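Box S2. Input/output pair 1.
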Amino acid sequence: MTGTLPPDTLLQWLRDESGASQSALYYLDYPQFSCLLLRAVTGEADQRKRYWRTHCSDTATVEAIREAHGPFALPGHSITGQPEEIIAVPLRNGTYTIGALVHCFLGRVDCSFQDLQSQADARAGDWFNGWIEFLVAEQTRPLPALFHIAGAVSASLDLERVLLNVVEKATVLFRAKMSSLMLVSPQTRELELATAYGCSLEYLNKPNLPLDGSILGRVVKKNRVLQVYDVFQEPLYKHKSHAKQEGVVSLLAAPITFQNEVLGVLNIYSATPRRWQRSEEDLLLTFAAHAAIAITNARVHEQIIRMEEQLQVSSKLASLGELAAGLAHEIRNPLAVINMLIHSWKSAPPAGEDFRRDVEVIAQKITDLNSLVTDLLSLAKPRPLDRRPVDLEQLIDRLLRLLRHRINQQKVILRKEIRTPDKIVPVDRERIEQAVLNLLLNALDVTPEGKPIVIAIGREAEYVTVEIRDAGPGIPPDQVDEIFKAFRTSKPLGTGLGLPMTRRIVEEHKGIIRVSANHPVGAVFTLLLPRQAGE
């Protein structure tokens, strides 16, 4: 066979000459010469398909091929049930090795090792030319993926889709077993899994990672790329059981950074031990930079939407605030006098059953009106917080004593759980009492007779939590975002101001209110209050 031949054609010819069942061509990477990359495979059409790894970074195998002076047998197992032998033939260019031919023989090897090496050496120039072309192609291979991701980032605000695109392209480009992307939670300061590619469904439910004491937390804190040759030997790698289940060994992790703030970590995993090259670290940082842009774009878009909604609500509340402030002084004093007169009439009514019924109706209407005015003023007119150390268990006990008659009347089962000794937080007692009372009243409104209401005090990171769980019908998922908007209520006599007021009180304390709808089996409201006033 004469003339210059492409590697695929040459590999087919050598397989036929050697009598091998299947053959593969691997090239060494450059300049590290530390990884074997699959270039071509032949002979699979008429035989049971063999799994040829797209890359091999096993140190022992790579070193054996680099140092070999001739063909040698590679360890392996039969996939056909017949005797097999796998022979590696080094491809040399002068004094150094650029790759290897790997032949799989079924049964006895009829061709001698010397003949196998002579066949390969006879086309040394073709192998070298193919190696140069392959290296050039490898250098340009990331460009289409980067262009694709850049286009997706600039064209879409769908964060979930863009991030999945990033991890998918990273997995393929790095020839990795799987990739994942984790984001730093602003609330818990933990790493939460945002998306992953190449993994099982179980992996998507893995728990959050603390920043302290974890290998990926170190990436966030030091804001630099980190690689782990074997995660099972790394003491700070927390999820070894997940790594075993997914079949991954080596890790390369890059921080996702925007304007010196680390937003998360982009991770790629290999199925075999692998030492990542500096160029691969730089490439992963480029992927992470695109992810940072996508995350920032999506968050800015969400903030704009929230600001528009807040402006609309603020405009409405400003008008209502002015109205409430103007009417309060003119209405509240007369209401107090009328209430006092009505109570005196009820104890000694002037005359007539009809008059008594009229008085009861008037009293109820006045009470409703006074309650509405009070809620409007509380919602529209903020005041400075009077922060003092407050024992939340004592605060809750006080509220339960106030509500004991209604609890007994409804025959509701009340259960209190104290899950942490940290119960004292710096809060405005009056405001937090109002927030918790609103939630307790809502829970009583929806919980049927004989069903439980659970009140629990716990701890999450730097927050003390107050959780209120009812046994009502829950909140339909499409209404969760609506319940904190003013004047949205499902109660016939409700004003729709209780939950907006509760959220504002919690946010004034730099806290968080969280809702688990659990439709149709009850809702859970959780208040997260900072343990320190400055947090």
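Box S3. Input/output pair 2.
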Amino acid sequence: MATGYKATDYHWQPTAVSFTSDAKWLQELHDRCEYFCKQNTAIFTDKKVLREGSDYDGVWLETQPMGGEMYAKRDMEAALNNQLIFIENQRKSGRLPGMIKFQEPFLLQVSYDWLQGFCFPVHALKMYYMIGRDASYLQKLYETLVAYDHYLWTYRDSDNDGCLESWCTWDTGEDNSLRFTRYGVKDGGFGGEDAPIGHGRLPYESMDVMSYSCQCRDVLATICTLSEKLEESKIWRDKANQVRKKIKDYLWREDKNACYDRDCDNLFMDVLTHNNLRCMYYGSFDQEMADRFIRHHLFNPEEFWTPIPLPSIAANDPCFSNINFNNWGGQVQGLTYQRAIQALEQYGHEAEIRMLGKKWLFLLRDQKKLVQQYDPFTGAPCVTRSEGLAPQGEETERYASVTTLGPEGYGPTILAALEYISLLCGINIAFDEIRWSAVLGWPSSSYVQTMHGHDYRLEQNGTEMTAFMDQQKLFTCSCGVQIRTDLNGKPLSVTGIEESSVPLRLQTETQDCNGTVFPNQVLCPTETSFIEIQRISFDYPYKHSEK
């Protein structure tokens, strides 16, 4: 029997999170999210996995590798298996399954008739660090990504114009969206490797599918560097940049400060979608493109900065539809909030992450229901099949015999909440670095992350935070910042995460640094002061902010 395809084949150390807050609502929200995460775990043949939850009793490529990696801080076994189950079920052609479910007593239902996003490469790479840099795992990941990128470029550029294509609504996980159905595309999957003909305006020249390849190639470059294959690393990095250039030259519209897909006649489809934020999640924008989309669209109250931000399509777009049941044509999705973290983080927009985090946690506090999507104007939660409230129609009929996990506990929503809690008053560990975060004015809390055989603890009271490693004090710092350290707790940088400048003091055994930090400004601590490393724009025409 092949080895290396389940978490128990590897050596990893247990993880855990302990969180206490003076705010009753925050404590209750955190505890409910943890409860539902445990409810969402299951055994799929020989693997413990984390399912998507609520109406979705399987693992999807667009959610669960990412969801698994986020859950690694609490359950390493499920987290690693959420990567390995897709690696194990890759076809010889390189195609990965879009969805995997388990049917009693022994059968896996593995579906290949749609791509279903690709929230996989970076999260699978993060697991390599978490399991102690296992070389055999890294090799499996390398082979998987090489094969998948080859698959995309073999089959998904049917007109050979250098732009990859989406062939159905489920390739990009945009169920029931009017940007497909309005143009004659029936909701659902599309099997096979021959491009659709006569299916509305398909194939779409797709910013999403291009971005799948871009991130795939970027991670391959990183893997080659880790494996000391520097010449191959450069080849993959160059290939990733070729994809970025095509996206910018072919799908980016200078006059509109955003990307737009093209239809089967290679004409722009004039629908402004949140998929631009997905491109940022995949790292396929350059810094200027990301800054411009954020400045002109993300914070536009007529488009994406609605009372509950991040509708799937701009609220003033003709294709926007405020439908309260599994519809990616309008309502705010938990999955978008989950992906927004990586999207904004890798372009240095740390302050915006905290703005979204507060919006998300306050929404869940007020609505007290953890479901897939919410009304962008009122915050009202969607209905679910589990409640028996789903509207009649093909969408409901398609899943009539599918078991649901209950009306609440939708994985992306609860994992996003747990992640935002850690980004507002807690700890995140990735790529052999630790990020300690505490915003100003937040309820007092204690956050303990057990990982790599150590207990990392952050105490904060909304004014000052103190960090510990195994009871040893590491540093004290004023709130309103994120401190990045190595795994031993040595401060490497400080980033402003508030909406305005804040006074800053960082104290360690050998340092007492004083200064001021601006939103998205990154500083390097010296013995007594700070040196600027980077400062990303935080300047929007729709709100007053410091320049």
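Caption for Box S3: The radius of gyration is 22 Å. Residues 53 and 410 are 5 Å apart (CA to CA).
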